[in-house]
Amino acid sequence: MLSRRHALALLAVAGTVPALAACGPNAAGPSGEDGSAALRVYWWGAELRAGLTQEVLDLYTADHPDLEIKPEYSEWSSYWDKLATQTAGGAAPDIIQMDEAYIDSYGSQGSLLDLESASDVLDLSTMDEAILETGRLADGTLVGAPNGFNLYATGMNPAVLEAAGIDLPDDTTWTWDDFLALCQEISEWGKSSGEAVFGTSGFGRGSGDLAAWGRQSGNQQLFPREDEEMVTKDTIVSLLEFSLKLGDTGAAPEAAAQIENASASLEQGMFATRKCAFQQVPSSQILTFQDTTGDPLKLLRMPARESGNAAMVNKASMYWSIGARTADPSAAAALTGFMLTDSKAAEILKIERGIPAFPEVQEAVRPLLSENELVSLDFAQEMQKEVVKPPVVTPASGVGFGTEYTRVAEAVLFGQSTPSEGADEILEILTGMQPEV
């Protein structure tokens, strides 16, 4: 979600990058103790990630004693402000952990290196194209190497269905109508048994929900490529109507409870506390829910508008990008490749940053994963046989769409506007956020 502060910081980057680019991509960066250039590696995350990443960097420097690496990390809340300030001042890190919502803002302004220009050092050829594609800008430039990936999927707690005496669904054929009926049945059991369990926590409030609904509606996209169609009003109306129907029929709780659940932490939400059987989740989050519930949870395909057409896509959990002005692109590319593909590095990182993007790395970490962790890996691998082309990365002009969409969808959920009125507003916002051709 893009805050006003982050937006202003990114605007500052956009305004200064052309001048910075004139200095050349190999302008001098920070120096090590001996005066040589040091590689700065910047990422967001808590202490666990910092410790694991430092282990990997130490592993690399053990074989490259002449290279100085300067690690830098920050919490998410301050990460982007710091990166924008550094980039605007001509002091961007050499290697940058990048997010899908921001990668176009930096890449399209020339702040990130075209990774294919360093392909002689950074070999990404064995990564599945359906995953690698998530790191390309609309013009095809590869500015992010997916560090890990996941899929937007349906989390299911089989223990709830078993307690209700309800058969598990077939996710290869189920539709949203099937999902609605199933969730109603679970909610009715929850009410009659005194368990206060709902079928689902809701669906349709997030822009990711609209993106999935659009892909299932003739491959409509939020930010379409030249050969794709933008989501239509009818598609938006149908999703908002379905979202309302979930609450109206009791398949999901009433609007206020849905909003309250959305603002709760993962560990305190309905799915984690066994108050609903289903919730749409990024597949990498299933481990958190498993640890909290203590139940053997499962990941399923999204229900489809048309049976058999779930239109699942890969989404990079995060990327490694290289600053366009790094003093030593080859050294930065070599270290990036090590963090992505080295088997010893993989043994340290495992799936902390998402499912590894390379098939050989996935197999290297498999023996090290717990049964709960394997749920995410197995699901991701199975889905590679049927994933469709991922959407283009969110353009810089559209980074605030998620916030705006949720605001309008919640107004519809509370009855403050109709699905048709909400769709008109959403369509106007989305049209205004389309990047200039």
Walk me through the structure.
This protein is an alpha/beta fold and 437 residues long. It folds into two domains: 4-148 and 316-379, D-Maltodextrin-Binding Protein, domain 2, CATH 3.40.190; 152-313 and 394-432, Periplasmic binding protein-like II (D-Maltodextrin-Binding Protein, domain 2), CATH 3.40.190. Helix content is 44%, strand content 13%. The protein is built from 17 helices and eleven strands. The chain has helices at 4-21, 47-63, 76-88, 103-107, 129-132, 158-164, 176-193, 207-215, 233-248, 255-263, 286-293, 329-341, 343-349, 359-365, 371-383, 401-413, 419-432; strands spanning 39-44, 69-74, 95-98, 145-156, 198-200, 220-221, 229-230, 276-282, 298-300, 314-322, 355-356. The strands form two sheets. Strands 1, 2, 3, 4, 5, 8, 9, 10 and 11 form a nine-stranded mixed β-sheet that branches. Helix 2 (47-63) links the parallel strand 1 (39-44) and strand 2. Helix 1 packs parallel to helix 3. The longest helix is centred in the N-terminal third of the chain and has 18 residues, at 4-21. The two termini are 25 Å apart. The relative contact order is 0.17.
Feature tags:
alpha/beta, D-Maltodextrin-Binding Protein, domain 2, two-stranded parallel sheet, globular, disordered N terminus
Please give the domain count: 2
Evaluate the radius of gyration.
22 Å
Gross CATH architecture of the largest domain: 3-Layer(aba) Sandwich
Number of helices: 17
Shape: globular
Spatial gap, N to C terminus: 25 Å
For the biggest sheet, the summary is: 9 strands, mixed
Low-confidence segments: 1-5, 11-35
Total beta strands? 11
CATH third-level topology of the largest domain: D-Maltodextrin-Binding Protein, domain 2
